Amino acid sequence: IILWGVRINESPDDDAFYKRTNEMAHALDPSRPTGGVRNIKKSHLYEDVYTYNDFVHDGKKHGVDKKSRVTSDMDKPYLVSEYNGHMFPTKAFDWEEKRAEHAMRHVRVLDAVAAERDICGSFGWCMFDYNTHKDFGSGDRICYHGVTDMFRNAKLAAAPYAAARKEIFLEISSSMDIGEHPGCNRGETYIFTNADSVKMYKNDRFIKEYFAKDTPYKHMVHGPLVIDDYIGDALDEEEDLSPDTRKLLKDAFNTVARTGVSNIPPSVALTAARCVALHGLKPQHGIDLYTKYIGDWGGESTVYKFEAYKDGKLVKTVIKEPMHSLHLNATADHTLLKEGSTYDCALIRIRMEDENGNTLSFCNDPIQIKATGDIELIGPELVALQGGMYGAYVKTIGKEGAGTLTISAEGAEPATIAFITREV
Asked: What is the pTM of this model?
């Protein structure tokens, strides 16, 4: 606990009442400051910290308001108590570009807050999805505001936070399947990592090495990297074109891969005209080359490999390729269950992955969960994956011994977790 909230959430000012709650908090705990969650600017301030829910970022506006525009006392600290949340609710099974935008909204706010030296920090709304009332959830009365689902399985939006940890982290914002994007245009693809650099390969051909310092989000400790090259030296090595033509085509193709054919920047249109007029490139030849090096249409399956390096050593690898087989991954937060004055309970996180450990976000297949031995399953045995993920809980039943949880699905080998139960 770093601060006591002494105001009713997002309530109007009530001077007499909030003077008393502030005084009571200090009397009960003189060691910690007070605040109170607001959704109004320039509010009366009796607490130690001005705490405010800043939902200004809508994908285009700046990530956060300046302190001077919000607080009524510049001499007291200012803390952003909520951001994002209902501005962009995102499900684990939403389409890829929405999940990526969800992650990047968190990135933009984190970077903007870090750039403001007089903002103490910020709390994202929120860690996990949750059940709610009819007025605030989706049609299933669930708030999909979390960076994880209800079982704490990470969505993509958890990636910028995971990259801030010490444990080596590497995640790509895309499955690299062009059919997931309108017009088969890749759009922006991001690398989330805390490594020093990441090497990208396409069908075992080295494309580019991305370095941590190259992130456009300079205020974050580990800002995401933007993939801007899908060609590397392939045009130089395989096409009988002049060096100038190859460079022009490479720049143009990589730009179109991100912006789309229908949104070609004027600079790319000019490049195309130069290639035709000055370098003798036929339009159909240019289209064929784009299809070959960017479109990946009709050819063999494309395999992308990303290698993360720390202190010159390879520390993590991520491979993106068309799925060949299903793999159930189930992990428990602890497997030694101790029953004392009440039962003990363990959380199991379940994911359906491909052979490379990538979550299959569109796998909503049914799975069966069965507990045997001296443990009991909480909840139904037959459920459906959501966004390729689910979860379960098991509990002790008042006996010392052992138990096994088995998760099974058609097309995948069952996953089993062994538990030991002890009375304390």
From this structure: 0.93
